[in-house]
Amino acid sequence: MNAESHKIQGNARFAQGDYQGAIQSYTTAIIKDPTCVLYYTNRARAHMKLEQWSSALQDAEKAVEFDPNHVKGNFLLGQALTSNPNTQDRLDEAIKKLDKAYALAIGYAKTRGMAEQVGEALRVARRLHWERQEGERMTREHQLLIRLKTILDKHEVEDKVMGDAEIEELWEEVKATFSRAEDASQKREIPEAYLCKITFSIMHDPVITPSGITYERTALLSHFKHLGHFDPLSRAPLRDHQLLTNLALKEAIEDFLSK
């Protein structure tokens, strides 16, 4: 059997849910032809089904090494990085790869069908990135406020540098300030305007229709494919070429997620 035959065998095993068997077939195909990107991406997918993220990451990295503009290679690499995001840098890299995969997928007719999948993975990665940043911010602010209270308490109360009435007044002010700051440091909610009207997820590639309504591009393309060419809310006729990127909203969302 040649490399391609082993790949076909691997595909059959994958379809049957025999992911370990598929990995074996793809591995044999790679041994016979170590330069075929498809063999690496197929094996990466099988590794992902078994949650073997490290192996999936290695295969996806190899695929992108052979072809830096390979849509599926960048997509799988981004997914593998997102599945084990032990550092913020790793999440940053995942978003970078998924961004590239999305741009490549949406740019070619033959890969446009993948754009919805890539877009969903990108939204998950960006939401995870934002939530981690929010958690770190809240922890830092809370620790700072606790330390401020401790310092003021020690300086003003223990050292008795102020009278009792002044101490009480200052203490009430500190408590009020602390309370307001705690309220401000609560986890921020994502503004409704940043959410797609179809998926209710934060948008990555917002497009505005002639009706003035903004949606996630891939959500609209999926709507066109399954339900027809019309605006989901206004019901007005709508075609792909009428969609315009909502640059102002896109920049606002990116700014929100970066803070």
From TrEMBL:
<dbReference type="InterPro" id="IPR019734">
    <property type="entry name" value="TPR_rpt"/>
</dbReference>
<keyword id="KW-0802">TPR repeat</keyword>
<keyword id="KW-0677">Repeat</keyword>
<dbReference type="InterPro" id="IPR011990">
    <property type="entry name" value="TPR-like_helical_dom_sf"/>
</dbReference>
<keyword id="KW-0808">Transferase</keyword>
<keyword id="KW-0833">Ubl conjugation pathway</keyword>
<protein>
    <recommendedName>
        <fullName>E3 ubiquitin-protein ligase CHIP</fullName>
        <ecNumber>2.3.2.27</ecNumber>
    </recommendedName>
</protein>
<dbReference type="InterPro" id="IPR013083">
    <property type="entry name" value="Znf_RING/FYVE/PHD"/>
</dbReference>
<dbReference type="GO" id="GO:0043161">
    <property type="term" value="P:proteasome-mediated ubiquitin-dependent protein catabolic process"/>
</dbReference>
<dbReference type="GO" id="GO:0061630">
    <property type="term" value="F:ubiquitin protein ligase activity"/>
</dbReference>
<dbReference type="GO" id="GO:0045862">
    <property type="term" value="P:positive regulation of proteolysis"/>
</dbReference>
<dbReference type="GO" id="GO:0051087">
    <property type="term" value="F:protein-folding chaperone binding"/>
</dbReference>
<dbReference type="InterPro" id="IPR003613">
    <property type="entry name" value="Ubox_domain"/>
</dbReference>
<feature type="repeat" description="TPR">
    <location>
        <begin position="3"/>
        <end position="36"/>
    </location>
</feature>
<dbReference type="Pfam" id="PF04564">
    <property type="entry name" value="U-box"/>
</dbReference>
<dbReference type="GO" id="GO:0071218">
    <property type="term" value="P:cellular response to misfolded protein"/>
</dbReference>
<dbReference type="Pfam" id="PF13414">
    <property type="entry name" value="TPR_11"/>
</dbReference>
<dbReference type="InterPro" id="IPR045202">
    <property type="entry name" value="CHIP_RING-Ubox"/>
</dbReference>
<feature type="repeat" description="TPR">
    <location>
        <begin position="37"/>
        <end position="70"/>
    </location>
</feature>
<dbReference type="GO" id="GO:0005737">
    <property type="term" value="C:cytoplasm"/>
</dbReference>
<dbReference type="GO" id="GO:0000209">
    <property type="term" value="P:protein polyubiquitination"/>
</dbReference>
<dbReference type="GO" id="GO:0006515">
    <property type="term" value="P:protein quality control for misfolded or incompletely synthesized proteins"/>
</dbReference>
<feature type="domain" description="U-box">
    <location>
        <begin position="189"/>
        <end position="259"/>
    </location>
</feature>
